[in-house]
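Example complex used in Figure S2.
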Amino acid sequence: MTEELKELESRMSDGKTFNVEDAKKFSRLSSFTTVYQEYLGEKSNYEGLVSMANDPEDVDLQAEAKLELEESIPKMDKLASGVTSKLLPPHEFSDRGCILELRPGAGGQEAMIFTQDLLTMYYKYAQVHRWKCEILSQNESTSGGLVDGSLLIDHPGAYDRLRHEAGVHRVQRVPQTEVKGRVHTSTAAVVVLPKIEEGADEGERKFAGDELRIDVMRASGSGGQHVNTTESAVRITHIPTGIVVINQDERSQHKNKAKALMVLRARLAEKERLEKVQKERAERRDQVSSTDRSDKIRTYNFSQNRVTDHRCGLSLHDLSGCMNGESLDQVIDAVEAKETELQSLRLIEDLEHVNK
Amino acid sequence: MPRIDSKTISQATKFSRFLPWLLRASRGSIVEAKKELRWIKSELPRSKWERACQARHRLVPLQYILGSQPFAHDLTIKCRPNVLIPRNDTEDWCVELEQILCDIRKPLKALDVCSGSGCISLSLVSSRAKFSHVYGIDVSRDALELANENLRINSHQLQRSNPKCIMKYVRGDILNEKLSEILGTGAKSWDIIVSNPPYITVDELASSSLEKSVKLYEPMLALEGDLEFYDELVKLTIEAQARAFVFELGNIRQAKRVAELLHLKDSSWIFGIRRDSGGIRNVIGWKRDSEFTSLDKLCHEQLQ
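Predicted assembly (660 residues):
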C-alpha cells in the first residue's frame, strides 16, 4: 500500500497533468500522508522504546522507556484509527454545513422541554466551536418546551461532525412538572440534514415550475394596501415527494421563503442519500450493524449525571458539560471511532470476498 | 372583529402577561400573538414591552411600533406614521421583477412614482439587476424624509450591488404637475417606471375589505385613489419615453384603464396582469421588440 501511495505521490509531484480532479485527489492524499507519516514516526519511536525496555544492561533506561511506552501506546492507537478513517471513502456531504431538526417523541410536556434542552445543547456546541449558527424556527408550546425546532449550523464540515446525532435521544430525570418526584423517561428525535448552498453549489437542484407549490398564509381579503398584517408564514409543498416545509419565524416573508427553500433542498438531498444507502445495503444484503440506525442512540440520565451512547457503549459522567456543548465532542469522537472500526471491518471483508 | 373567548385569554396569560394584549391584532390566534411577542421582545428594550403590547391592542401596526419592516434582500425599511408600510405583496413582485431585470446587461434608468418609504426603489438598487439612475417621486414631505433616511441606513447594501447608481428622492405632485415640471430637463429618457400609487376606492374605504389597523393608522394620502392616478401614470410613462412599466393596483378596472389609454397613444405596447393570493395585483406593460419582452414572465394573463 505504501508503494501504491508513493507511486501516486510521484505522479502528483510531476505537476504535468494538473487539473481539478488531481488537485482534489492530491489534497486528500497529502492529508492522508501527513497522518500516515505521523503514524510511522510514532511506530518507530514505539519500536525503539520496546528494544530499550528489553535492554537488560541499563535498568534506569528500562524504567524510563516503560513510562514512555505507556504514553506512546494510546497515541499510536489513535493515529492508527486516524489512518484507517482517512482510508475510508469520505461521506457524500462531509464538507457541508448542516440543519438540525428536533421534535419531541414520547413523554408529552417533558419531551417538549427536553427538545428545547437539546436545541440549546447544539446551539452552545456550535458556539464552543465558533461555528456560525442560527435558529431557523422554534415553535414553542404554550406551557413550555418546543413542539418543533430547527437549527442551521453554517460551517463547512458541521454535517460530517454532527450526522451521528441523528436518531432518538432519551432522557431520564425528574421533570420540572412532576410533583411526586418520580423519574420519567421521555424522548426527542433529531434529524440531521446537509445544507445545500444556493447558486454556485453543484449539488443545488433546480425546481421545475410545477414542482413547487408556494402558499403564503394570511387572512382572506384583497391584500395589497388593504392589509398591513404581520403574518409572514410561507408553506412550500414539493409536489413529487409530498414534502411540506413551513417557515414563519421571520418578519420578512421573503426570508421565510428563502429559509423554507433551503430546508426543502436539505430534506430532498438527505432523502436521496438515504435511498442510495438503502439500495446499496439491499444489494449487499448487509446485516452488519452500523451507527446510523434510527433507534434510540443515547440516554441522558440526570440523576446519575451520566450520558450513555448506546452505539459505542461510552458512558460519560459529565452530563452538564455535555448539555452546555463543551464535552459533547468526547461522545461524538467515540461514535466516530466506532463507525471507522465498523466500516474498516466491512472494507476488509469486502476485500477478502473479492480476493476469493 | 371576532370575540376572543376567555379560555384563549387564560391560556395566553399563562404563557406571558403580555400575550393577552396581542390577541386582538392577531384575531385570537395564540400562535400569531406569540410570534409578535417574540419580535417585540427581540427588537425593543424591556422597558418598552408593556407599552408596545398595549399599543398593539389598540391595533397600531406592529411596523410602526417596532419602527421598521424587513424588505427583500436584507433591507431594513424604517416605518413611521404618515408613510405607508411596505407590504409583503409588494415585496413579492419587486423580487420577481428584479430576477427578470438582471438578465438585461445595460444599466437601467428607473423611476419610482409615489415612492413612499422608498422600499421599491431601494430593493431594485440592492438587487442583482443593474441600474445607473433610480429616482423616487412623492408628494409627501414625510415620505421623502423617510425615503432619504432609508437610503442612508441601507447604503451598504446599495453600494454592494450598484455602486455607481445615482439615487434621489424628489418632491412632486403627479396629479397636478407634469414630469418636466418635477424633474426639469431630466424628465426624458427613462427605461422603466414602477409605481405603487394609492388605489383603494372610496367604496372600499367604507367597506370591511380594509383592515382596521390600516384605516386607523396609515395615511389616507397613500391609500385613497383610483383611475386618476393611473391616468397620470400613463401620461408620465409617455413623457418619460419609458419602454416598460410595472404598477401595483387593486382592481381590474385600473388595469384596463392603463392598457386602453396607452394603446391609444402607441399601439406597440403589450400588456399583462399579475395576480397573487389576494387577487389582481399588477398591470405590466412593455414595448414590442424592446429589451423588456421578458416581463411577460411576470404576467399571469395577457390583457386585450
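DSSP finds 15 helices and ten strands in chain B. The two ends of chain B are 40 Å apart (CA to CA).
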